[in-house]
Amino acid sequence: MKKLINDPHDAVRDSLAGLAAAHPAILKVCFDPVYVMRADAPIQGKVAVISGGGSGHEPMHGGFVGRGMLDAACPGQVFTSPTPDQMEAATCAVNGGAGVLHIVKNYTGDIMNFEMAAELCQSRGIEVRSVVVNDDVAVEDSLYTAGRRGVGTTVLAEKICGAAAARGYDLERVAALGRRVVANGRSMGLALSPCTVPAAGKPGFVLGDDEIEMGIGIHGEPGRKRMPLLPARELVAQMAEAILADLPFREGDRVIAMVNGMGGTPLMELYLVYGELDRLLNARHITPTRSLVGNYITSLEMAGCSITLLKTDDELLSLWDDPVLTPALRWGI
Amino acid sequence: MGDLNVAVTREGVLRWLAVLAQVFAGNREQLTDLDRAIGDADHGINMERGFSAVQAELAANPPADIRAIFQSVAATLIRSVGGAAGPLYGTFFLRAAAACAGKTALGAADVVALFQAGIGGVQQRGKAEPGDKTMLDALLPALDAMRAAEQGGSDIAGILDRGAAAAEAGMLATIPMQARKGRASYLGERSIGHQDPGATSSCLLLQAAARTWRL
Ligand SMILES: Nc1ncnc2c1ncn2[C@@H]1O[C@H](COP(=O)(O)OP(=O)(O)O)[C@@H](O)[C@H]1O
Ligand SMILES: [Mg+2]
After folding, report:
1. Which protein residues have a CB closer than 5 Å to ligand 2 (ion)?
2. Which residue's CA is minimally distant from atom 6 of ligand 1?
3. In chain A, where do the E strands start and end?
4. ipTM of the complex
């Protein structure tokens, strides 16, 4: 294992200390329990939007804390959900009296920890609503599984809910909007190479030189199948077809299209992937009316990418375009 | 003679927890490897972190009685483990604490009641059913076996031996199961053929009790 760390056990803390040092005007980091919060929180009268999840997906979620997006983020250990005391402390710290929305990715651990946190917050008299993101089409959604994983749509939900909260939407409306984003967003990813959790010291899975994992999860969980590496055009087509068929997206739809890097894939390749996606969408008369290309929800140093499509309407688009000032997303300010 | 020889005291409970810290440190790799096959390769790391934090907390703030010990364990696990195992084992000890309210020592029936409450908590928190390939597949057979042993008049050692044996059988029985809960369920049929990490840690928990609480 070759990583720029001091000690595997301190990697998350040390990284958060760096995040705080790099962006003091935007956010601050509290330790014990650990959470990242907006430098100017709480904002009185505004719904606060919080998310959280395992570390190793940076910039998600801490890099999305700031004006127009998240009020706080709760980072767990690498690939391990945060604990209820973190969410409870973060919720109390950013509550501006208008309630708090928890954006939760659909993993058993995240669900149970956020559930316990919500119970603790409600018992303190803070109104909490939760939106669960479950957008990964690689996973079968059935009664016989824990349901679909939450992946790329989380980024879009955090941006759009954050914008709505900044506009003064009340808690119910922000939560409803979050659910609408989840209902209209779909994702799928692939891995070219595995990643190594610092505390584990060895890769989470092994891929042959010419093998990829189609439908990879953001923790290296396997997806649909192992398959040989193909030209990017064919891989993009496989991912996009699975996504388009699932919602389904239809001719005339306008979408926000995200091509996300898993952490170890250069932007050159991500833009190449975006180009293929753009062509495919246009050929289907689906308009990629906004795009986001880069590393937003990563898996440490894993090579690969994911595609997220969100079917939009005027309201979602206008919220998407609202100003945002965070370490990882900033425009309009 | 008397109660001291047939009951688990506060010190006995503390001994079990100390053994658990050793057991999870010693099985860190094994549990993580099992989780690597059908999960995200962190279960052993999570359990070791949790139970070593429990030792630190118990040493720093020694609780007065058995209930307070289990409350402290629950709070520490919930705070330090994360993942699915944190809330599940945290809830186990929270319920175990309630079951031990007012007790200065645990007799045979109390030991069974402790596990019954704890396992009920796991079931309520995780909403898993038998056969879903989770820790419950070790815990529920263990509970049945312990209840039967207690009704049959066994002493604590006998009850826990039966429980540990049933937990081990239940753990092994998870191998051919297809996971329907937790991260492993994402694998569908690919989860078949692997032993569930949580069922394994639950089995270790019972084996440690059986080894420690021999009176
Ligand atoms: N709903 C559930 N009910 C009971 N046990 C569960 C449930 N979901 C997962 N588990 C158990 O948790 C174990 C995984 O724990 P861990 O690896 O620590 O958490 P995570 O899956 O969040 O990484 C599984 O092996 C399984 O036994
Ligand atoms: Mg795990």
Report:
1. B 35, 39-40, 42-43
2. B134
3. 27-30, 35-38, 48-55, 72-78, 100-105, 128-133, 185-193, 211-214, 225-228, 254-261, 287-294, 303-311, 324-325, 330-331
4. 0.82
